[in-house]
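COURSE: Structural Biology Practicum
ASSIGNMENT: Worksheet 4, Part C
STUDENT ID: 0417
INSTRUCTIONS: Below are two proteins. For each, the amino acid sequence is given first, followed by its structure token string. Answer the questions at the end about the second protein only.

PROTEIN I
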Amino acid sequence: MEIHQSAVILLLILSVSSFTHGQPPAHIKPRYEKFLKQHYNPDMTVQKCDTVIRGNRDFIHSETENGCKKINTFIKANSNDIKAVCGKAGKPYRNMVASTKPFSVVTCKLHSGDTHPNCKYRGVQDTRYIVLACEHGWPVHYDEGIYKPNGS
């Protein structure tokens, strides 16, 4: 069996191309990873709000006296579908991007708590359009506001 040199070169190009397109640039990677930790959880349920938020140091928040983040939304989708909002599955909205289809989400709102990590949350499951800030095609921020296409 003879393998042509052009076939080997093509395979190498395809391999490198899929690798480089599968990872964010180095200067964006930390923000993308933080976004995933805070907002991506395909298995999230309303009952898991306390456990998931307490188990993640990125939820210590300086906007409150006690360090508890007031609200956090988890997107229940695969990461490729979320990333696609930064491309063809999104449309410009203010200085961010809004999804063209709704996503299943769980929003955890602070109910009570003395100080982090004793924050107590109540969760609500919903389906809604999401709004993201993207850099070079990678989501780096989730906007907690409610977006309704066409003012509906």
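PROTEIN II
(use this one for the questions)
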Amino acid sequence: MMGDRGSIFPPGFYFDPTDEELVLYFLYHKAANMPCNFDIIPDLDRFPPNPWELNDKAFMSERKSYFFSRQMQNRATEKGFWKEIGLDEAIHTSTGNKVGIKKYLVFYTDAVCSDKQTVWMMEEYHLLKNGIFSEISQTAESHIQDLDEWVLCRVHEANMSCHGINFHETDGDGDQLSYLDEAFLSMEDDQEEINFPH
């Protein structure tokens, strides 16, 4: 059973992993075909659903959907497609080793005249072959060919508060700026790398 499976956790606990935990524990175990004590995130590789249909298919927690998928160039569904916004975030361990990449995507619905941007966002987690082996036993190297095959996806509505990201913001003149506009304006003003809150 998918959906909000809070019953698998003791009372008072809920699923809220860090980026490091998603990569080093859940995604690595999936990619390396290793057993996982909490095998709760499903594989939706064959039939990628539309984001609003994930409730009964993905693992749900705190209004966020989690699922595994194989890496695909074409991220199309029946009603639209996922598009990268060009902002990638490196994922590091507590010891500073780079072990993964988080890509940000926005869902667009297919329309007759033009594609329509929605409020649905996806964070797509990727393993780094070289980086992860500084954190794990060398005995697992036989699985290295599989590490770039799988990704872990987290989907949510971006107008909700999630990891400090709001899809729409308002500037000082009362005009509404999209999340993408805000990100690129910050790049022009500060000329610094954008760091998303964890």
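ANSWER KEY EXCERPT:
Q1: Helices lie at 19-31, 129-132, 179-190.
Q2: Strands lie at 3-4, 59-61, 64-70, 80-92, 98-109, 116-127, 150-157, 168-170, 176-178.
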